[in-house]
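pasting input
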Amino acid sequence: MAILVQKFGGTSVANAEKIRRAAQRALQAHKEGYQVVVVASARGKQTDHLIADAKELNDAPPRREMDMLLATGEIQTVSLFAIALWDMGQKAISFTGQQAGFMTDDAHSKARIERLEVGRVRGMLDEGHIVIVAGFQGINAVGDITTLGRGGSDTSAVALAAALGAERCDIYTDVDGIYTTDPRIYTKAVKMEQISYDEILEMANLGAGVMHGRSIEFGKKYNVPIYVRSSLNDNPGTLITHEVPHMENILVSGATIQRNLAKITLLGVDNKPGNAATIFAHLASKRVSVNDIIQTEVSAEKANLSFTVAHSDLDVARQAITDIRSQVHCSSVAVRDDLAEVSVVGVGMQSHYGVAEKMFTALAHKQINIDSITTSEIRISCLVNLEQAETALIAVCDAFELDKPAAERQV
Ligand code: ASP
Ligand code: MG
């Protein structure tokens, strides 16, 4: 019998009425002949409330204890979910992460799944139960509760779908699916019918915030189709898979905007082996996470080196550069914290000419200056002035017709 995993996010199980509606969806799939596994998040803002409770008692609560505390949020949801299903006459059983077999490393608050022992889940499915599993949690080798990082229930769900060989993992959320770009800025954005894992991974890294990044990595690695859809209606959602029809013909699938970026430039660094290594080793030792790096040779002796960081890392990064600049003979340092990055993402750009030109032309027509450009095989990103960033995003979306379904685009 085919297995279906359904994941319900916090907003989809926020109260009794919503839990009942979610339970009805699970029951419906069961009636259609699936073995159904539900993975649920904590109700509504419960995780935030628990964090606030802890902070009232301690500004820096121990991570182990936070994991104990936060795990209770999901446990409440799954037991209530099972209770709702029994009321509908359906056999159901709820499991903690541990009971469902989630074995993780011991990095409290950001644990990684090492192994999944799904014997008990399978047994209960075979006995005709709907199995409801607490997302976001597991146990480490000594049996302590761990959590997977904020938003981690997506990863629990996709990992479980992979381990069970499920036909699909449905992610129920409060949006209709994944849009070509942020509809709050580009109101003409359309929902994508399908998108590839690679593209969504790029978009997630660029701050599109659709799903927990690691869940997509699991889906890609283990071939789990992921279907993102709304729990509020029956509108079609967005399917994330390897192959998307006409994928090669679609130049650009989506566009993103990343605000809160700062760029640090080291001018006139000695142009010799080891300098970049010195600089980035020092930044890493200060735990600065660097986005894009651009180095250009100015002469045989000198080079300029720029990199971008999140605003939240800027102070630490600036200090780190102050520490190290004389070692690499840097003549001056420039910092800009009024930039944003606008990016286009699409697998199709690998096999087409002119994508970069189209993007740059769209920006030029709006008199937007490009501070710097970085690319990957399936992405082009431009740093622009923060106050022009929304105009830039809209111009780029218009140029690539991101207001139309993929099949209807002329570009
Ligand atoms: N409840 C956790 C959080 O709010 C995990 C999740 O919702 O995926 O981050
Ligand atoms: Mg979530």
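fyi The CA atoms of residues 281 and 392 lie 34 Å apart.
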